[in-house]
Write a structure and sequence with these properties.
52% of the residues lie in helices and 2% in strands. It has 611 residues and is mainly α. The strands form 2 sheets. The protein has a two-stranded parallel sheet with strand order 1-2. The protein has a two-stranded antiparallel ribbon with strand order 3-4. This is Zn(2)-C6 fungal-type domain-containing protein.
């Protein structure tokens, strides 16, 4: 190991210095423990570990820049074939999406493209730069063909699916290491391997049959992995991903997302992810304590709770809250990662949303003080708005709109007189959510890769627009703008659909038929009341499922199940649901956030357990 003798100022002599490789990738480095030996990361990867006092990080070229550089080289070497250059990525949906807010570093197959370029002394690209391109392009994505339940997927298709996953899916739920080692991933956990391939093949245009073949086998593989109890960390990773992007089903009753979410949460608890440290209290053997492992376990637990609880919220089910046991002092505070900042922001928004749901349940399920309900809604909505200055990108903004929608949609539950000002504000939130989603889809194909939570919030926003469009005319809203947004949701649902029919394609049909209906929201007495919500036990998704019942009545000929429901039944349902939700809610009423509020999660600087 090479090391330069650096004379540091007195204020920095005790400050640990990371090696060049770790500084380049902004990773935690333990070289300061013994500067005469390489750090643990360099040892694992067989890298040269250097401590350079004047080292500066080099910005790596983007994928688009690498592709343009290769095309330029080809033009110089052989101008006659320049017009035949095609994009290197097999999946056409990836073209032009290199700026999708992704933090992934997985490039296209640049190494293969460079190998096709004949050598020419006139080439203006330095040998070192070309070597770096080839070295970065390999990324250990040289796997082999794999077989699952009699179905064999070729290695090049697996590589493509891993690239698509790294580009579009991993940045939204970053719990899998980049770059990914194909063969190592398969050896550690076939479930995680096939989950990544399945998600990457959702919109894989080169071979649409890959997803069809794998999606029917993933549920069985998931339950087999839970039964075997091998590689629990990787199993939790896979289940979190399957809950974020569930497999397509034709009917809600066939959806296994909540079964997998429950199993995921319980498995995470069994291996002690909810407790700071490396899970020694939950292990049968001595576990080596590493800060990077501690940080990663905290990160995985946080995304596990956010994704699994959001799946419940998106289906109108009460999220199960778990008491955590994190020590605020167990992590180094020397650095601050942008990933941690984003995770802390998402946690705050999720915390506000879950707290709001727990507080409004007693009010929406039984007769109560409407003024108190309005006050609770305004308190939590204002807390979400306070975080606007911390939003880092479009996905954060979209998430905030979703949280505010779930909070403010409870205004439909307020009994007469209804606050028109609150409904106008709710309408604006729904419009902003749809427009933000549409603009992100136009820029980066969000509809193809968005999570279950975001897509379900999009449907809820459309039903809010539908109800308010059928509201009294004295409700002053921009109806033309709302109509455009409503039709955008129909288009986005069809674009997102993976199978015919699946829930997305059926939702597009339902939205289309309800918009053209002249009977929707018409009660047994012949009076139209779009502001009334008959279903109240589905929490913030009650409006969503109430509209589905209006569709069933008119277009499926089902009788109105709510026309003769006595108030005593609703009161019993209110009591039972309140008992279910309240014991799990351990949040305080007032959430006064500051920069240290999420210090209990430490400074995120995790090395994922794949390298």
């Amino acid at each position: 190991m090479e090391a330069t003798s650096i004379e540091r100022p007195a204020s920095q002599r005790h400050r640990s210095v990371a090696c060049s490789e770790c500084r380049q990738h902004k990773l935690k480095c333990d070289a300061h423990q013994d500067y005469s030996k390489p750090c643990s990361r360099c040892r694992r990867r067989s890298l040269e570990c250097k401590i350079l006092g004047d080292y500066k990080r080099i910005k790596k070229p983007t994928k688009a820049e690498l592709v343009r550089e290769i095309e330029r080289i080809r033009k110089e070497v052989n101008p006659t074939t320049a017009s035949d250059v095609r994009p290197l990525e097999h999946d056409s949906t990836l073209q032009g999406q290199t700026n999708h807010g992704s933090k992934s570093t997985t490039p296209y197959n640049i190494a293969a493209a460079l190998s096709e370029i004949p050598y020419s002394p006139a080439s203006s690209v330095s040998t070192e730069y070309q070597h770096n391109l080839q070295q970065d392009a390999i990324l250990d994505l040289q796997g082999q063909s794999r077989t699952i339940d009699g179905v064999t997927i070729a290695s090049e298709k697996i590589n493509d699916c891993f690239n698509i996953f790294a580009t579009h899916y991993s940045p939204q739920v970053p719990i899998v290491e980049q770059p990914m080692l194909l063969d190592a991933t398969f050896e550690k956990s076939p479930l995680l391997f096939w989950t990544i391939v399945t998600l990457g093949s959702r919109k894989y245009s080169q071979d649409p049959t890959v997803f069809h073949q794998l999606s029917h086998r993933m549920a069985t593989l998931a339950f087999q992995s839970l039964k075997s109890r091998q590689s629990p960390i990787q199993t939790v990773q896979a289940l979190v991903l399957l809950c974020a992007w569930p497999l397509p089903v034709k009917h809600l009753l066939n959806d296994k997302i909540h079964t997998l979410a429950g199993a995921c949460m319980q498995l995470a608890l069994q291996i002690g992810l909810h407790v700071s440290g490396v899970g020694q209290d939950f292990a049968r053997e001595r576990v080596q304590a590493q800060v990077s492992e501690q940080n990663y376990r905290a990160l995985l637990w946080r995304y596990c709770t956010i994704v699994c609880q959001s799946a419940s919220i998106g289906d109108g089910l009460p999220p199960s809250m778990i008491v955590e046991a994190f020590n605020p002092d167990w992590v180094d505070q020397n650095t601050m990662s942008p990933d941690f900042n984003q995770l802390a922001l998402r946690t705050k928004l999720h915390h506000i949303q879950s707290s709001a749901i727990s507080k409004v349940v007693p009010y929406i399920m039984a007769p109560a003080d409407d003024a108190s309900l309005e006050g609770i809604i305004e308190i939590f909505d204002s807390q979400a708005r306070m975080l606007q200055s911390q939003l880092q990108d479009d996905i954060d903004m979209l998430t905030m709109y979703c949280v505010r929608l779930h909070i403010c949609v409870s205004r439909f539950m307020v009994r007469q007189p209804v606050s028109m000002t609150g409904l106008i504000e709710l309408y604006g939130i729904a419009i902003n959510l749809i427009e933000k989603y549409s603009s992100m889809d136009a820029a980066s194909d969000l509809a193809l890769y968005s999570t279950f939570y975001l897509s379900r919030a999009l449907g809820l926003a459309a039903f809010v627009v539908l109800k308010l469009h059928h509201s009294p005319q004295h409700l002053v809203i921009d109806r033309e703008r709302g109509e455009r947004c409503y039709f955008s949701v129909i288009r986005l649902c069809r674009r997102r659909s993976l199978d015919t029919p699946d829930l997305d394609s059926r939702l597009a049909t339902i939205l289309t038929e309800l918009w053209s209906s002249s009977m929707v929201f018409r009660g047994p007495d012949g009076i139209f009341d779009a502001l009334n919500v008959r279903i109240r036990s589905r929490l913030t998704m009650s409006v969503f499922f109430d509209c589905l019942w209006w569709w069933r009545q008119e277009f499926r000929g089902q009788p109105d199940p709510f026309v003769s429901q006595p108030s005593a039944v609703r009161q019993t349902a209110a009591d039972s649901l309140t008992q279910l939700v309240d014991p799990f809610m351990v949040f305080s009423d007032g959430l006064d956030y500051d920069e240290n509020y999420f210090g209990m999660y430490g400074t995120y600087h995790a090395t994922l357990p794949y390298s």
